[in-house]
Amino acid sequence: MGTGPVLLAPSHVTLRRANNLLLNFSQNYSFGKSTKHQRIEAWWNILTEGQTQEWKVYFSELENEGLFSGSDLDKSFLQFIYMKIIRSHIHRFVAVHNNHSI
């Protein structure tokens, strides 16, 4: 199982509990193997390969060269410098993907 469900489960539960405080976790979310989400999984792979992987490599290179320590301050600086650029790349990627013929 990927990290998506593990990270999303608490958010789903929190959102559902906003409307019904009595719901417990098992009523809100269930873990298991997904065999019907192949399209979205394929899309995430395309996004990763086409957009986000290059940034992961770049940030790893910064770390390997001693230019990034992983501190909260370093993370804040990278977010300030790169977040707008990364978002614009991803938004363009999504726009192109959404406009292509199936």
What do you see in this structure?
The chain is mainly α. The protein has 2 domains: 1-32, no CATH class; 34-102, no CATH class. Helices cover 75% and strands 0% of the residues. It is built from 4 helices and no strands. It has helices at 3-19, 25-28, 38-64, 72-99. Helix 3 packs antiparallel against helix 4 (72-99). 0% of the residues are buried.
The helix tally amounts to 4
Task: Please give the domain count.
Answer: 2
From the spread of the alpha carbons, the general shape counts as extended
Give the end-to-end Cα distance, rounded to a whole number of Å. 28 Å
Which structural category do the helix and sheet elements fall into? Answer: mainly alpha
Poorly predicted runs are none
Tell me the β content.
Answer: under 5%
What is the helix content? Answer: over 70%
Rg value: 18 Å
Order of helices and strands: HHHH
* Total beta-strand segments: 0
Describe the structure in brief.
This protein is an all-alpha fold and 102 residues long. It is built from 4 helices and no strands. Helix 3 packs antiparallel against helix 4.
Features:
single chain, 102 residues, mainly alpha, 2 domains, 4 helices
